[in-house]
Amino acid sequence: MSVATAGTGRIVAGRYELSTLIGQGGMGQVWTAYDRRLDRRVAVKLLRPDKVAGQEADELRRRFVRECRVTAQVDHPGLVTVHDAGSEGEELFLVMQYVDGADLADHLAEHEPYPWQWVAAVAAQLCAVLSAVHAVPIVHRDLKPRNVMVKQDGTVTVLDLGVAHVMDTDTTRLTHTGSPIGSPAYMAPEQAMGGAVGPYTDLYALGVLMHELLSGNVPFTGTTALGVLHRHLYEPPLPVRRVRPEVPEAMEALVLRLLAKDPQHRPDSAQETYEALLPLLPARGMPTGAPLDPTRPFLRPHAPWPDRARTPAPQPQATPAAENVEKPDVAGAVDEVKRLLGEGRITQAVDILGSILPAAASEHGEHSPVVRTLRKQYAATLMDDGQYRRALPELRRLADERAAEAGQADTQSLRFRYEAAQCLEQLGEPAAALAEYRALLPYYENRYVGGDPATALELRRRIGHLLLALGDRGAAHDILARLLADVQALHGPGHPLVAEVRRTLQWLGQVRG
Predict the structure, then answer these.
(1) Which one of the listed residues 35, 58, 75, 142 is annotated catalytic?
(2) Averaged over 159-170, what is the pLDDT?
(3) How many DSSP H helices and E strands does the chain contain?
(4) pLDDT tens-digit map of 231-281
(5) For this structure, is 168 an active site residue?
(6) 366 Cβ partners below 8 Å, 6+ apart?
């Protein structure tokens, strides 16, 4: 297929007629469009053609495809729905639900001062979305009023997961320009410092957003991005009741908790934040009648689903033993998994591996080489699919079994433990991940038991970033300064890790000074 031009605009994928440019950023453009096949309006995001060139082309393509896959994983009415995705030549496209309403920045401008009851309603809806997003796990990284729409019925929709990558090592680092991903005005201290991010990072942005809705301004401003980030790191926010005395004390206290510099002092989760907002939400009744009233979903909620918890789920019926029962084709399933992985169909591969494992264990034995190999592939594929919560117990089990057979210093056992620690980091458990990385480091540094210097350096980098996420900047500085000296001595000043660590230390120097 090719991008064509019609009387009313370009045609993408032979079906999406572009109409009006409504947004433009570093990753591309967003257009309103008309879906000719299903006769509906949609939004189409295009990767800007001038960005798909040179050395950055492959990385931009990877990030865009990852955005499509990750966004499509989350099924929640408060998150924009993905309809389609693909590529045409050097252009990439993502087709999304068109949201009819006003973004939160415009909504605030039209209703300033923003009723505090509306703030509670908006924040509660955002907590519901963040709970679903964090369960994947994804960190949005760029939650701000321009990325939140208030629809005609008062419901809130979160847009643009363009920088909301599945949490991995690539995206815990500063960008190639030395700037953190995200918007400085809404950026958490650990994100500004290039430390490990997690759900607590989005909760900080939610606190900034609530502060802005209540007071009319973000808590920290400045003439430069660095100046704004410095204030995020050092200055306490102004309590909103000094500007709006009518705001309940409980709401002011919640905003201050969300804006805590140390992630450990913020609420534990979006769910906990929602629970704190519950007493502030309006009781059922009549909406105000104001356009796009965010309290409407709480005043007149949708009819609830039947209480399905009371109905026991149907239990699978036992299959009677019989000689003519066909045995599962384990070898055929393995071949199918290889084919699917080669085509990038990771989710389907995960499903097949998960379903074939019990049959393989029954046929070959739980501890057979065949089953062990399948379980390794299953854990690796779960990680590739971003299903870290499911991968974690598989990796721990593999690590324990291998250590029991070959000892704690066994290379495979250590690799499984390392990947399990990565899962903990992705799941927003920095303290647990840090403890595991620290426990692993001596093995990888010990050349007498087959140490791995490259992995040891990466472990030290991760430890430094997790210390930043946990607010221990002094320890992070010491770890990273020693790491910088060692990398330079081993690989020279031109090594990519040298530039990255030096940038992080420069940020640390700015905030320490």
Answers:
(1) 142
(2) 48
(3) 18, 10
(4) 999 999 999 999 999 999 999 999 999 999 999 999 999 999 999 999 999
(5) no
(6) none
